[in-house]
Design brief:
Keywords: Amino-acid transport, Cell membrane, Membrane, Transmembrane, Transmembrane helix, Transport. It is built from 26 helices and no strands. With about 500 residues, the protein is mainly alpha-helical.
Length: about 500
């Protein structure tokens, strides 16, 4: 019996191309087609470029962290979770796994909102905003459709994702080439920093505020760079994980920067800031006509659906890996006869359905999902870079690799500083939600400790300190909310 299961699992392994497709598909999802408007909402082209340089620089070292760790610790599968467990214990690992799981759930719901909003182009009035009744029904159907697709096996889902990734890149490449051809240098340089004295009506405030304003959007576009690491347990060759991470990062970075910067060469910041989502479609409608808008909208549907598939695969993998290590309840580790993480996937889909129902009451559902997703992933990035730093500082790094310790240390330190900077630059009302969302997962951890592990002391002394810190943050958030300092 065990041999048969192993054989089925081996048949579900992913090659380099599939892993690259998952990284690119995870990063270039619904966010990329909203970039022109999202980045230009409060910023001119100069600050937008700097925002990308900052985020790209920081995420390069985050991706390098995952590459280094996947190379020196290929034994740690589903690294997003297990790196934290190895370095800082089960409770910190649970918080990271829970936060990352929430991020995948919120991201998938954001994909659903974008799909419905795009369908409104083809069926005007029925799906406006992506969060009306018909949209909620449509997103719910897709949530469960992807649930059953991934239940059919990781290999099948991976093959579909490769096709979807190639198909999604074609409209984006067309978009880039059209804007390069029509680029007006005078237009893009007329008010680079948003404070040209001759254009007082277009003054956008300080350069720093313009740089920080689109950072959460940029970060959200980079979420998924760890996709190959999250699915490392499914890789045919563990060495492919690092390669896929780097290749996917470069492809996605280049595409995102071009799509953000080039529109300033054909339209003004003020015009870009009011284009409805997906803004790439609105821009092509202005510059080439209806056919351009239709091309992009078709591309958006393909792009978002393939990203949704990739994230559904990742979403199911994290709780399963945590359950295998005893941090989530053991039931989450169960697989079906296709090797899919069935219990974890069902639980993920149920939570997604609940979030979809809550989205109905949100005034700006897509941006809310985007902001929350970007912040709930930061604990995973921070703890992974901290683990690499710990390996280097304690000398344990040399147990796994004879060379490269200094480079790895610099990589981890820059990654840590970047994560802390993103916390500083985040909008307070969404940042305040993070500790509350993380605390909501505690019943799962307590259940796993009591029932599965039989532990009498649920929290160890070091874990208790972290728990108290988390509760203090919750109380502080409640205080800010009651005093109307923040409003959700």
């Amino acid at each position: 019996m065990p041999t048969g299961i192993k054989g089925k699992d081996d048949n579900q392994k992913l090659g380099l191309l599939a892993l690259v497709a998952i990284v690119v598909s995870s990063m270039i999802g619904s966010g990329v087609d909203g970039l022109p408007q999202n980045m230009a909402a409060n910023s001119e082209v100069g600050p937008v470029a700097i925002a990308w340089l900052i985020c790209g620089f920081g995420m390069f070292f985050i991706s390098r962290t995952f590459i280094i760790l996947s190379n020196i610790r290929p034994d740690l599968q589903t690294g997003i979770y297990t790196y934290t467990q190895q370095g800082f214990g089960a409770f910190c690992a649970f918080i990271v796994a829970w936060g990352y799981w929430l991020m995948t759930i919120f991201s998938n719901v954001a994909f659903g909102i974008m799909v419905m909003d795009t369908l409104n182009y083809f069926i005007p009035g029925d799906f406006r905003g992506g969060n009306n009744i018909t949209s909620v029904i449509g997103v719910s159907i897709l949530v469960w459709g992807f649930n059953f697709l991934v239940l059919s096996g990781t290999k099948l889902a991976g093959k579909i994702d490769i096709v979807g990734t190639i198909a999604k890149l074609i409209p984006l490449i067309v978009f880039i080439f059209i804007l390069v051809y029509l680029l007006n240098v005078t237009e893009i340089t007329s008010n680079i920093w948003g404070n040209n004295p001759s254009l007082p009506q277009e003054h956008l405030g300080s350069v720093f505020s313009q740089i920080t304003s689109p950072l959460d959007v940029a970060l959200w576009c980079f979420i998924g760079v760890e996709g190959a690491v999250a699915l490392s347990g499914r890789a045919k060759n563990k060495k492919d994980v690092g390669k896929a991470t780097f290749i996917g990062f470069v492809i996605s970075l280049v595409v995102c920067i071009l799509i953000s910067i080039l529109p300033f060469g054909v339209m003004t910041q003020k015009e870009l800031s009011v284009i409805p989502t997906p803004s790439t479609a609105g821009i092509l409608k202005v510059v080439v006509g209806e056919w351009g808008e239709m091309l992009i909208n078709i591309g958006v549907l393909i792009s978002v659906l393939s990203s949704w598939l990739a994230w559904t695969m990742i979403c199911a993998e994290i709780p399963m890996a945590a359950a295998q290590n005893g941090t989530f309840p053991k039931s989450f580790a169960r697989k079906n006869d296709k090797g899919a993480a069935s219990v974890s996937l069902w639980a993920s889909s149920i939570l997604m359905q609940l979030v979809v129902l809550m989205v109905y009451f949100s005034s700006n559902a897509w941006l809310a999902m985007l902001a929350i997703s970007a912040l709930t992933v930061l604990p995973a990035y921070l703890m992974s870079t901290a683990y690499l730093c710990k390996l280097c500082m304690t000398g344990e790094y040399k147990k796994y690799a004879p060379n490269g310790r200094k480079t790895a240390l610099v990589t981890s330190l820059i990654g840590i500083l970047f994560c802390l900077f993103m916390v500083y630059a985040s909008e307070v009302k969404y940042l305040a939600m993070v500790p509350i969302l993380l605390t909501l997962g505690l019943p799962l951890f307590i259940f796993a400790r009591i029932k599965d592990s039989g532990e009498r002391n649920i929290f160890q002394p070091e874990e208790m300190k972290f728990l108290i810190f988390l509760i203090v943050l919750d109380l502080f958030t409640g205080f800010l909310f009651l005093n109307d300092t923040i409003k959700f």
